[in-house]
Amino acid sequence: MSDALNLVLPHLRTPQGYDGVRSLEAMAAEAGIRPENVIRLNGNENSYGPSPKVAEALATFDQYNRYPDPEQKALREALSEYTGAPAEGIVAGNGSDELIDLVIRLFVGPGDRIIEPTPTFGMYRFSARLVNAEVVTVPRYPNFELNVEGIRLALDKRTKIIFLASPNNPTGNMAAESEVRRLLELPAVVVVDEAYYEYCGRTAMPLLAEYPNLIVLRTFSKWAGLAGLRVGLGAMSPDVAGLMMTIKPPYNMNRAAEVAMLASLQDTDLLMERIKPVVEERERMFSLLKAIPGVTPIPSQANFMMVRLPEGRGEEIFYRLARGGVFVRCYADEEMKDCIRVSVGLPWETDGFVKALEEALEAQP
Ligand SMILES: Cc1ncc(COP(=O)(O)O)c(C=O)c1O
């Protein structure tokens, strides 16, 4: 009998998972408080929750015993209406995380490369690692703008994909259309990840008609409050989508996710109305943080913002906040040292976070 561990692919033998958002119960236990008192601002979720139509549709749906449509006909049509992209060019996925994985599986093999302008979302390198690809990082400028020339110089024959989150997670800034166009002129697939599109209203979607190497990703996790049901989509050239449809697991969208997605698309007016208080709350939080000495919030176009803390105190303040039941995100990378990322939630969550931050800053390091 062989030891199964010896059969694991060599590049996957060191455990290196994605540091995902833990459960509310785990956070409450860590802080020693009740779950309802946890201030959970580490996942860029939507504190307003889904449309009320989602619960209603899930409760009355009567086909849970049937597999979902592997061709996603109804979904792709509804998503086409929402995004303006042709239905044949759309693939729905189990969160946009699945689309990132599918894009990589379609284009990237062992030894191939992806480029990511850092700091950025961690799932690009996570999925690249699974296929034993190389991740080439091109640091953003100190103001977090893209180094397009650096990306061009980093590109070689093995480079298959350039990943560009816009607005970028965790920095919150957007790429200019001229920059996206310059990247699209390069000989690689360009994935523009628009997870936070609904908070900024600017999209690369119209460029699909001009550039067959463009893939735009969106998610229902943020604007539609469906993070727990996993609903994402990719829009791309119909040829690429046709092939992606053949490599996805046939029933990748579960029926509850389908039902919730369609119900959300029946209630876009209400969901978009709820974007406004988040944007207002983001600006209120920005002003509150700006007034704190030693703290620098970074302007954001999304439902979160990055915050620079006094030098050398980032990690300590992060743990202090967590012990008090306030959960934000911190980063191990050198370029994000002393920075945290905080999601925009409800006003009481902002107030609780700002108060806890002020107290943590006053405490002795
Ligand atoms: C830039 C970016 N892309 C994709 C995702 C993943 O979204 P989903 O919940 O649809 O998998 C996130 C989630 O935080 C994100 O920040």
How would you describe this structure to a colleague?
- With 365 residues, the chain is of the alpha/beta class.
- The chain has two domains: 4-37 and 274-362, Alpha-Beta Complex (Aspartate Aminotransferase, domain 1), CATH 3.90.1150.10; 52-267, Aspartate Aminotransferase, domain 2.
- It is 38% helix and 15% strand.
- It contains 15 helices and 13 strands.
- The strands form three sheets. The chain has a seven-stranded mixed β-sheet with strand order 2-8-7-6-5-3-4, with helices on both faces.
- Helix 5 packs across helix 6 (123-130).
- The mean pLDDT is 96.
- The structure holds pyridoxal-5'-phosphate.
List the helices and strands and how they pair.
Blueprint: H1 4-7, H2 24-31, E1 39-40, H3 52-60, H4 73-83, E2 90-93, H5 96-107, E3 113-118, H6 123-130, E4 134-139, H7 148-154, E5 159-165, H8 177-184, E6 189-193, H9 197-200, E7 214-219, E8 232-235, H10 238-247, H11 255-265, H12 268-273, H13 275-290, E9 296-297, E10 304-308, H14 314-323, E11 326-327, E12 329-330, E13 339-343, H15 347-362
Parallel strand pairs: 1-11, 3-4, 3-5, 5-6, 6-7
Antiparallel strand pairs: 2-8, 7-8, 9-10, 10-13, 12-13
Helix pairs in contact: 3-11, 4-11, 5-6, 13-15
The chain binds pyridoxal-5'-phosphate.
Keywords:
single chain; 365 residues; alpha/beta; Aspartate Aminotransferase, domain 1; Aspartate Aminotransferase, domain 2; 2 domains; 7-stranded mixed β-sheet; 4-stranded antiparallel β-sheet; 15 helices; 13 strands; 38% helix; 15% strand; globular; binds pyridoxal-5'-phosphate
